[in-house]
Design brief:
Layout (H helix, E strand, L loop, with lengths): L7 E6 L7 H15 L3 E6 L18 H10 L2 E9 L2 E2 L1 H8 L3 H4 L3 E7 L6 H13 L3 E2 L4 E3 L6 E2 L2 E2 L2 H16 L10 H4 L6
Parallel strand pairs: 1-2, 1-3, 3-5, 5-6, 5-7
Antiparallel strand pairs: 3-4, 8-9
Helix pairs in contact: 1-6
């Protein structure tokens, strides 16, 4: 965490790989959030015991710690690799433990990486989930295609891509306290998240 405790931005990494490009990109976005004077934290799902979500046991394992971390953040960045046209299972499982208490009126930024071309569908699917939880999703989003070519020794190769990812962190701080929109239609139908 950074030293300024007035505003907090967390990033949840939906990749479990050791050399995860998603994690590298989220760290870059969090660095920009720190530069904008926010306290930051990378939520690395490898460090959480989160059994496959079961609605009959929604406080299993480390779920209470995860939900508390999300609830207490002013803004959340969600990062994922694109798997089969959507976002990754570890992130889906983590989000299933959350609900309106964690995300309603929360500012959320989206980032997705892929081995192929643009991971747009993963971003669209995450945007739909956030809308169902009545979160406010930052219009700016970061997509990193052909991620294996995007980094060299942990740093971005392309300055424009690095700037796009950094902007996500900056916008998370800028819009962390934006006035919430009226409830979305999708959220009114999402009774399971209450």
């Amino acid at each position: 965490m950074s030293t300024d405790e007035d505003l907090s931005v967390i990033a949840i990494c939906g990749s479990l790989r050791d050399g995860s490009y998603t994690r590298k990109a989220l760290r870059h976005a969090l660095s920009a959030a720190e530069d904008a004077s926010a306290a930051t934290e990378l939520v690395d799902l490898r460090e959480y015991d989160l059994p496959v979500y079961d609605a009959d046991d929604d406080v299993a394992g480390d779920a209470p710690g995860l939900t508390r971390t999300v609830r207490e953040a002013d803004a959340v960045l969600l990062g994922t690799p694109m798997y089969h046209g959507s976002y990754a299972t570890p992130l889906k499982n983590a989000l299933d433990y959350c609900g309106f208490d964690e995300f309603e009126d929360k500012t959320v930024g989206l980032l997705a990486v892929s081995g192929g071309h643009f991971p747009v569908t993963a971003l669209e699917h995450l945007r739909s989930v956030c809308r169902a939880l009545n979160a406010w999703v930052i219009p700016h989003q970061a997509a990193i295609p052909q991620a294996y070519q995007a980094f060299d020794d942990g740093a971005f190769v392309d300055e424009k891509l690095a700037e796009r990812v950094a902007t996500l962190g900056t916008r998370a701080v800028q819009y962390a306290n934006i006035e919430p929109d009226p409830a979305s239609f999708e959220s009114q139908e999402n009774v399971g998240a209450e």
